[in-house]
Amino acid sequence: MSPEILSALGAIVGEERVLTDAESAARYGADWTRVHSPAPAAVVLPGSVEEVQELVRLAARQGLAVVPSGGRTGLSGGAVACRGELVLALDRMNAIDDFNPVERTVRCGAGVVTEQLQQFAEERELFYPVDFASAGSSQIGGNISTNAGGIKVIRHGMTRDWVAGLKLVTGTGELLDLNRGLVKNNAGYDLRQLVIGAEGTLGVVVEATMRLARPPKDPAVLVLGVPDMASIMDVLAAYQGRMDLQAFEFFSELALQKVVEHQGLQRPFDTPAAYYALLEFEQVSDADMEQAMALFEHCVEQGWVLDGVISQSVAQALSLWRLREDISETISRWTPYKNDISTTVSKVPAFLAEVESVVNGAYPDFEIVWFGHIGDGNVHLNVLKPDALPMAEFQQRCGEVSRWVFEIVQRYGGSVSAEHGVGLLKKDYLLYSRSALEVDLMRQIKRAFDPEGIMNPGKIFD
């Protein structure tokens, strides 16, 4: 990047907020993936919407590619800058204000950390329900750009369900104020929903009005050992038929072994099982616990459940949640090859059986860890890299089998990316989930928002 452009960037945000050193490039130019090496030309840290607009206008004039950067916790390479791009890190835009107790809404800068919003809501006896393992570092702008999901989707939906309005700086530097917090607004296209999940390819999300909810009352957690995947779905049907579940997660025996060994946790019970289901529900009255225990006994009688444990305190509930929530952090030391796939909930057992058959046949010498949000049809396949295997060879072997897995996804009408986005890692597989016509329409939409093609180019599609 020329000294003239660096000087122009410094004139907008201040010279001390234009970073070109190797440490900053590595920090701001990468996400949680390790496939591509970060190589941004520079990193800038704007502090206002107006500064973002000026930066994008400069980039458009100079033909500079721009990568918006949030908490960089993504798992698809969507925030990776590996081709000399200009990174816009939104960390400084982290104000929370304009709280409206009547509407139950609050205005957040794009750099607000998810946990920060959760704590803000809790202090006002409210609740922000979009929750996941990276809540302590992910940012609202990134959550919106990837339509983040997490562990409460079965009850509360995805990020898009909680965005009352947002502001977007387009690829020409124009500012769009979309929906403005309205509950009802059928005046033409809802451009807000196009932006949500667009991975920064349409512009930079700079601000959002987020909805809040009432907090769950006295949540209880139940962990069940089940003999097979079909039994998990039977348990889900039994509980959903009688109770409003807050969450319904699953993980495999190997996932449990890894977490117990490396996080210093205890097994929930002594009986081993092929899979484990984790349920959370509210205890609005004593009848809720009675109903949960009656359903547990019914599932045991049917042979769907081998053993189980239910939380007796908030501390125990948090401990049980760690069995599921600590999996990603635990297995990160093996640099797992991840596939984040989904289908409709009813098809999951047959879908998973086919995927397992292909994966186990192709990777007989690899450890396979399964977990996910099975209550909404989303499962995470994690292939752990053997220590002695070079990364390039590991990625190549996994990539070959991914196509077989995605052929199964396509046959089941599923998605090759349920919640992590497409980014760099999944764009070669987009046509397994989207038609050619859909992708062409996406390209046309991008050109309307970003005529110079500077916003996060190479992500989702080329």
Automatic annotation (TrEMBL):
What is an annotated GO biological process for this record, any one?
respiratory electron transport chain
Q: Where is the FAD-binding PCMH-type domain?
A: 36-215
Give GO MF terms, alphabetically.
Answer: (R)-2-hydroxyglutarate dehydrogenase activity; FAD binding; metal ion binding
User: Which keywords belong to this entry?
Assistant: FAD, Flavoprotein, Metal-binding, Oxidoreductase, Zinc
Entry EC no(s): 1.1.99.39
Query: What protein name applies here?
Result: D-2-hydroxyglutarate dehydrogenase
Coiled coil where? none
Its taxonomic placement starts with: Bacteria, Pseudomonadati, Pseudomonadota, Gammaproteobacteria, Cellvibrionales
Catalysed reaction(s) here are: (R)-2-hydroxyglutarate + A = 2-oxoglutarate + AH2
Q: How does it assemble?
A: Homodimer.
PANTHER family cross-referenced by the UniProt entry: D-2-HYDROXYGLUTARATE DEHYDROGENASE, MITOCHONDRIAL
Which cofactors, by name? FAD
- What family, per the record? Belongs to the FAD-binding oxidoreductase/transferase type 4 family.
Q: Tell me the Pfam families matching this sequence.
A: FAD-oxidase_C, FAD_binding_4
